[in-house]
Amino acid sequence: MADRSVWNRLPEEIAERVLAFLPISSVFLCRCVCKQWNSILTSSPFLDLWGSASPRNLWFLVYHTTCSVASYSPRSGRWHNLPLYARCSLDSSHVLFLASSGGLICFRNRNSDYPTLIVCNPVTSSHRILPDMPQIRYIDIVGMVADPASGSYRILVTGTTEPASSDSITELYDSRTGRWAHHCRSRQEFLQFWYEVHAIWHDGSFYCLATPVNTLQGYRLIAYDVERRDWVDLNVKMPSGDVRCPSLVVCQGKLLLAGKIVEEYLIRSICIWELRWDWGGLRWVKVGEMPDEILRKIDSPHSILIQCQGHGELMCFSTHRGWQSIIYNLAERTWEWVPENELCGRNQMPALGRNNLVGLPYEPSLSARV
Description:
The structure is a single chain. It contains 7 helices and 24 strands. The protein has helices at about 1-10, 10-20, 25-30, 35-40, 45-55, 85, 290-300, and strands spanning about 60-65, 70-75, 80, 95-100, 105-110, 115-120, 125-130, 140-145, 150-160, 170-175, 180-185, 195-200, 205-210, 220-225, 230-235, 245-250, 255-265, 265-280, 280-290, 305-310, 315-320, 325-330, 335, 355-360.
């Protein structure tokens, strides 16, 4: 009884600070204790405090089914099947994943004449339908970056008004204004794509790998400087060999490229390269390679789709089979198989195709606002 009385006399601001160090799952449990705790734990001051004090927990969104998104937490070594669509009032058959940043996920509507973007926080079950883009009707490139300090986010979209148009338009949405702003118009051939490309944020620019329609030059690294409002081809030669399924990631403050090298219809290696500057300009330097004993266990033809996502010191390699995922730790240079998702086992899982492989890093957040 003495211990309980101590907690009853604890000042509310001290109690808030103690509770702010709890992980998300514990916060939800504490909200069920009583009305007073629920009021405290849902208040804006507490959410801001939690955002600055709570330990970060990274998830990798690996694949999704029609009902949930399979996310893996390297910190706990556990899977979480996130009922994202139900929480955010979305129909999985009508939306596509585009990007994620700062605890928020961006979708777009599927098969529509007017692309509508939706931003949601699956933890707080909140979502926002963004206003229509002023000019873009066909999306080629999309990227997202959140600023935890200001609680805002920006979404970059490059696309066209018509399918066959050679005029690429870039527009930027800023959550602080709630509006889209026209940034630039370009006729650069490296901005004309067959399919949507995900751009990642690094050091003030959005980067992506261009796969132009009207050129035989293959993949090209391009960047969009938000301040200068301009797309540029960085003229970086791709690594030697037949590189397939390349993925751009940012880890440890570095821009990395991951992909498989194919020879005679087989995957010969899966490598990691870092973008470095030397006297000859920018170039890709190999900094890691999957060990042969792990590569042999993948045992798949060259056509298998492999994606890589990165955050902090970790890179997650996933195949379209969903349960085949591997974590690489750049700091320790170790490779570990991700355990099988027992909540959605191999035998019960529906067939997964290109659209089922998500490939996004995600940091659950109570304080991220849409």
